[in-house]
Specification:
Helices cover 74% and strands 0% of the residues. The chain is mainly α. Helix 2 crosses helix 13 and helix 4 runs parallel beside helix 8 (159-183).
């Protein structure tokens, strides 16, 4: 006698297993709202002020570029950011390479020292460099004691002091992405280069450097962009003769109440940053799809 049997489907259709989640930009609405509120609207506000206060026109941009004082500030900003970036790359590459090849215990120790430097208050680190670099500071006194110099060097209130202080502060921001890039490389590549007869310099310039270049570019871009907008360290170590654009914007807003010119300077700084980022994307496009394949 036939019995009643219940047939259970082995798998549910995809539409039945998972409810519909919607489509389009619905899930991006909170992110887009935050970007519009905290980025797009402030930038538009600065743009409007730069062309409408006190009257409509591009006079603030003409003054910013045509006036020697403001043009010199812009030149100082680009010069300091470039020098700091170059010095940071020269000092940071050996540090990142050392962290990648030493045993794990020493690598963690170096990483801890790097992070401790980042976590220390920026103002404290800047004042520490002021103490070290002044005419009666430890550096000058040590050099004079060793007979290297006869009189103290001028290491504060000039480009030298700004470069030293900012390079120290920016160093972790280059080492961290560069260390991640070097750490991901296969050590067998360098061994293969040595087996094929390449010298150490040839292995570095022809093998290691091209492979590490994306990490160098990412870290250098971060350092350059952050150096463009730095305020505390250049103000304390550089003095009025080496004013940078961020300090100028602060003075225009706080002391002169010139929001139009401050908005023009801020927009110029933003355009430089976006232009550099677009250049990096063009020179070093993302290769996530190739790795995924």
């Amino acid at each position: 006698m036939p019995t009643d049997t219940m047939t259970v489907p082995l798998a549910l259709p995809a539409t039945a297993a998972c409810p519909q989640r919607g489509s389009g930009f619905a899930w991006l609405t909170p992110v887009l709202a935050l970007l519009a509120l905290f980025f797009v609207l402030p930038v538009l506000s600065l743009l409007l002020r730069s062309v409408t206060e006190p009257q409509f026109g591009l006079q603030h941009y003409a003054e910013l570029i045509g006036t020697w004082t403001y043009a010199k500030v812009l030149y100082n900003t680009l010069l300091v950011a470039t020098i700091v970036t170059v010095v940071t790359v020269v000092l940071g590459f050996p540090v990142a390479w050392l962290m990648a090849i030493v045993p794990g215990r020493w690598s963690r120790f170096l990483m801890g020292c790097l992070l401790l430097s980042m976590w220390t208050n920026l103002l404290v680190r800047t004042y520490a460099w002021m103490v070290l670099l002044q005419r009666t500071g430890f550096i000058n006194q040590t050099l004079m004691k060793w007979g290297v110099i006869d009189e103290p060097l001028a290491l504060v209130n000039n480009l030298t002091g700004v470069t030293i202080g900012m390079s120290y502060i920016m160093l972790p921001f280059l080492v961290l992405p560069l260390h991640a890039t070097i750490k991901s490389l296969d050590p067998a590549i360098l061994r293969a280069a040595a087996t094929c007869g390449a010298s150490r310099w040839q292995a570095f310039w022809l093998v290691l450097w091209p492979l590490a270049l994306p990490g160098v570019a990412s870290g250098a871009l971060m350092v350059f962009v952050m150096s463009l907008g730095y305020f505390v360290t250049p103000a304390l170590l550089g003095g009025a003769s080496h004013m940078m654009l961020a300090e100028l914007i602060a003075q225009l807003v706080q002391s002169l109440l010139n929001w139009g010119l401050a908005g023009a300077a801020s927009l110029v700084l933003l355009l430089i940053t976006l232009g550099l980022y677009a250049l990096q994307l063009k020179l070093f496009p993302a290769k996530g799809g190739q790795h995924a394949a």
